[in-house]
């Protein structure tokens, strides 16, 4: 369940959510969006579907920040200026609980009545088809009720590339062409469920491999920014969260080698 303060009506707001996926690219992209927009944390998701985790505030203004804020496994932020509600999931699903969480999330989105939903995720680069090997590694798919004018803008004006469908002869046990999103977590089933429920949804993804996926996340966020204009000053850059300095742990005590 969502625990926190719902600031007025969210029916005119866009919800951005990451899908836990290969390289955690969606979550990293959401990190830079929250950090750059200085979005306000307004609540968290309490559920047994996500493994519990607690830690220091990942968006502290500096390393020495002593505000003593804690983060939890799944939190909700709001950016009123851009009419955004942003969810950040920091832990994987408990075993066998991803479907239950997806169903809860879908019902929560329906109850709130968000204007539209944006899912950020990633797919395994080693499972691309021939058409995906060259050129941009960014793709998108939309629900059946995604506004036509938005679709035309991102496809025609911004030249976004739609995710290619896999033909039935690809040997994946499907009788018709379909979207294939290996490694994307709950993203595919979530946006398909939204399409069935007439929820306007856009899924933006990038192909990548496990490793240092910072640049993949920056590219994904920048790609979304070409449409949503989250960074309005073209000379500005994404604000990297201070927590990213500890991706590979803290430095070892050098006296160990003396």
Output the keywords:
258 residues; alpha/beta; eight-stranded mixed beta sheet; 5 helices; 22% strand
Q: Which stretches are poorly predicted, pLDDT < 50 over at least 5 residues?
A: none
Q: For the report, how would you describe the main beta sheet?
A: 8 strands, mixed
Morphology: globular
Number of helices: 5
Percentage beta strand: 15-25%
One letter per element, helices H and strands E, the order comes to EEHEEEEEHEEHEEHEH
User: What is the CA-CA span between the terminal residues?
Assistant: 52 Å
Question: What is the radius of gyration?
Answer: 19 Å
The assembly state of the depicted protein chains is single chain
Annotation, overall tally of beta strands: 12
Structural class: alpha/beta
Major β-sheet strand ordering: 1-3-6-7-2-8-12-9
Average of pLDDT? 88
What percentage of residues falls in helices of 4 or more residues? 10-25%
Question: Could you explain how this protein is built, in words?
Answer:
By secondary structure, the protein is α/β, with parallel strands linked by helices. The protein contains 5 helices and 12 strands. Strands 1-3-6-7-2-8-12-9 form an 8-stranded mixed β-sheet, with helices on both faces. Strands 4-5 form a two-stranded antiparallel ribbon. Helix 1 packs across helix 5. The model has no long low-confidence stretch (mean pLDDT 88).
């Amino acid at each position: 369940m969502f625990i926190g303060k719902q600031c007025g009506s969210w029916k005119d707001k866009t919800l951005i959510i990451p899908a836990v996926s290969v390289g955690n690219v969606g979550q990293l992209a959401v990190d830079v969006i929250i950090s750059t927009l200085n979005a306000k944390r307004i609540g968290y998701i309490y559920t047994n579907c996500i493994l519990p985790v607690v830690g220091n505030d990942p968006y502290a203004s500096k390393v020495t920040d002593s505000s003593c804020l804690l983060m939890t496994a799944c939190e909700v932020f709001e950016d009123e200026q851009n009419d955004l509600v942003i969810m950040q999931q920091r832990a994987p699903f408990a075993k066998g609980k991803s479907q239950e969480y997806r169903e809860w999330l879908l019902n929560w989105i329906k109850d709130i009545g968000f204007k539209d939903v944006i899912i950020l995720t990633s797919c395994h680069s080693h499972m691309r088809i021939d058409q995906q090997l060259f050129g941009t590694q960014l793709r998108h798919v939309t629900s059946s009720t995604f506004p036509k004018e938005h679709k035309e803008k991102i496809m025609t004006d911004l030249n976004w590339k739609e995710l290619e469908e896999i033909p039935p002869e690809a040997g994946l046990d499907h009788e018709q062409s379909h979207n294939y999103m290996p490694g994307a977590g709950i993203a595919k089933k979530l946006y398909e469920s939204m399409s069935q429920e007439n929820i306007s949804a856009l899924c933006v993804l990038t192909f990548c491999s496990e490793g240092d996926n910072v640049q993949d996340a920056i590219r994904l966020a920048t790609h979304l920014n070409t449409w949503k204009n989250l960074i309005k000053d073209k000379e500005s850059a994404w604000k990297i969260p201070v927590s990213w300095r500890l991706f590979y742990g803290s430095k070892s005590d050098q006296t160990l080698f003396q």
